[in-house]
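Appendix B, example 12.
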Amino acid sequence: MAMPNPYMSYQEHSVLTASPIDLTLMLYNGCIKFLSRAERAMQDMNHQGANEALLRAQDIMLEFIVTLDMEYEISRQLNSIYEYLLRRMIEANISKDASIVRECRDMVTELRNTWAEAVKLNRGHAG
């Protein structure tokens, strides 16, 4: 019988109890992590590892796309960015081009930092 992994239990609990705002931040962080893994795998000529990491990053982008509320202008703008990132990730996976992965990681990092700053400002005004 396998022993439960405390880290995995903690991680699962964190996701299940996170607010939508915090979950968005977690998804951005996860996407950055998978893009970094893909880049390292490409540098190591580990095509399978790069593929798996890029597929995970693409799944996160798809999650962002399908959860946007297109009633808002900001959602339409984010949709364009997310679709661009998704296309570039697919292109990077096909060509195994680490420079495209870096471009995507930099863009996602910028989105994450902007989101984190907006959350911080919002929480500062909420009290």
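The chain has a mean pLDDT of 90. The chain is about 85% helix and 0% strand.
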